Amino acid sequence: MFQRDEIRQAVRLQEKSYRLLRWVGRQLKSGALKFDQIHQAMSMGEAAKEWLGRHWDSLPQDARPERREELEPFAYLMASYLATSFELKPREPYLETYCGCYCRWCSYLAAGPRLKVRKVTKKARRDAQELKAVYLQGLAEFLDRAVPGTRLLELAEQRGEGHHVSLATYGNELVRRTRYASQGEGILVLWREIAWEGHRPKEDFRLQAEPLWQAQEHLLEAIPKW
Ligand SMILES: [Zn+2]
């Protein structure tokens, strides 16, 4: 379950991370970015925090949070966004010209526009269903209802509430990603469920906090009637 101010922050940071990735792509061409600090023993989130903190003043304002206090959630979200959405081929020497750090964070950034969008696998679909079930069970517990998450998910689908569940679960995961508590392919499936139509992204889709929040509010009202 997430709070309104948390989802607003997460959506705002998510938008900044798209912009940052595009900016990085442009900078790579000019060779202006440095990957010469070694992050060997760090998690991808910690490496992101170190790198973004060190480059903070040279990042464009629209591609990073206004306040430096948001460095940590921003770094965690950005790291999770890259690892969730794109594939990194481990043997491809993205950093051959830099003589730099080979950690996952630096490799992802240095790959820039060469990153490949991940394909949705069967495992990813199963993971997404699991994320939904765990999330629904959390809502039910908050409402003092002892119903297993998998049963709640069945009930939601029977009642045509699938879209609300996708939206709210995505929102919940987005907030957890700002704490580096959620990664993985399941999120990619949730994203496609809310932002894609058929096999392509919806035209003009823009993620906003309010529909995610409203979906959770709706479920909190609906679950006691199931
Ligand atoms: Zn590194």
List keywords for this structure.
single chain, 226 residues, mainly alpha, 2 domains, two-stranded antiparallel sheet, 59% helix, binds zinc ion
Radius of gyration of CA atoms, rounded to a whole number: 19 Å
Coarse shape: elongated
Count of discrete domains: 2
Q: Please report the distance between the alpha carbons of the first and last residues.
A: 19 Å
Low-confidence stretches: none
- Biggest β-sheet, characterized? 2 strands, antiparallel
The helix fraction, in percent, is 55-70%
Q: Which compounds are bound in this model?
A: zinc ion
Structural class: mainly alpha
Query: Strand percentage, roughly?
Result: under 5%
What does this structure look like?
With 226 residues, this protein is mainly alpha-helical. The protein has two domains: 4-117, no CATH class; 122-225, no CATH class. It has helices at 4-30, 44-55, 71-85, 104-111, 122-142, 149-158, 162-177, 185-195, 209-222; strands spanning 86-87, 116-117, 196-197, 200-201. The strands form two sheets. A two-stranded antiparallel sheet has the order 1-2. Strands 3-4 form a two-stranded antiparallel ribbon. Helix 1 (4-30) packs across helix 7 and helix 5 (122-142) packs across helix 6. The longest helix is centred in the N-terminal third of the chain and has 27 residues, at 4-30. Zinc ion binds at residues 39, 47, 101, 103, 105-106.
